[in-house]
Amino acid sequence: MPTEQQPLIVRDLAKSFTMHLQGGRSLPVLANAGFALKAGECAVLAGPSGVGKSSILKMIYGNYAVNSGSIAVWHEGAVIDLATAEPRAVMAVRKRTIGYVSQFLSVVPRVSTRDIVAEPMIARGIDRQEARERAETLLARLNLPSRLFDLPPATFSGGEQQRVNIARGFSTNHPILLLDEPTASLDSANRDVVLEIISEKKAEGVALLGIFHDLDTRERVADHLIDVSAFAPAQAA
Ligand SMILES: Nc1ncnc2c1ncn2[C@@H]1O[C@H](COP(=O)(O)OP(=O)(O)OP(=O)(O)O)[C@@H](O)[C@H]1O
């Protein structure tokens, strides 16, 4: 059972995709995936390309359906199984318990950069003014020029947009954070800032689960590695 100290436990998770373009053939990707996340630690999903790392993150965040198994999460003092939870419960877990940090910006147009980063904090009850100030601090740490704070990020460079989204993902105090390659294609100064933020999250007791392709980065953040190739289905091995 998950607890505050071990807030996420994955058991016997299986995933296969139905290939509609190939007559509905089933492509098994994962079988018997199991691991637990501890508060204050960063676990990293490792294994070769195509082994199912992103699929695991997407199932935990509720973007991919689960075939079987359980994803038990400690959510506001109770346990929820995300593998079978109703969409409304999944949304509540996203709001309060599990945050997602990725490099890809998918936000409404015409909203200023400052408000894009402040928005998840405001949604979680932080005063608007304070949320905006925290957003600015985070954006400045990620070396985004302050002249950009009032502008919507639609016209920003790829790297600038990526940093806005990273700031947004790290702005909240979710007790669990999923990290989908947050440092990919960042320059080394900004990558170091992200690594520093991850260390701070650990010190605050956040449980992190990430994908990091860069070996050096992985070594610096990982408290333990989860070898996803160990979860390959027998027929695909
Ligand atoms: N929506 C989908 N529909 C069909 N097949 C999918 C889908 N998503 C993933 N797959 C397949 O599942 C397998 C695992 O993909 P996944 O993206 O989870 O791997 P990964 O380990 O994250 O790879 P990489 O390191 O290259 O990002 C791949 O064979 C992929 O083609």
From TrEMBL:
| Alphabetical list of SUPFAM superfamilies matching this protein | P-loop containing nucleoside triphosphate hydrolases
The lineage's top-level taxon is Bacteria
SMART domains assigned to the protein according to its UniProt record, in alphabetical order: AAA
Looking at the UniProt entry, the stretches that span the membrane are: none
- State the InterPro entries in the record: AAA+_ATPase, ABC_transporter-like_ATP-bd, ABC_transporter-like_CS, CP_lyase_PhnL, P-loop_NTPase
An example of a GO molecular function for this protein is: ATP hydrolysis activity
Q: Domain named ABC transporter: which ranges? A: 8-236
What keyword terms does UniProt attach to this protein?
A: ATP-binding, Lyase, Nucleotide-binding
Similarity comment:
Belongs to the ABC transporter superfamily.
Q: What is this protein called?
A: Phosphonate C-P lyase system protein PhnL
Organism in which the protein naturally occurs: Notoacmeibacter marinus
Q: List the taxonomic lineage.
A: Bacteria, Pseudomonadati, Pseudomonadota, Alphaproteobacteria, Hyphomicrobiales
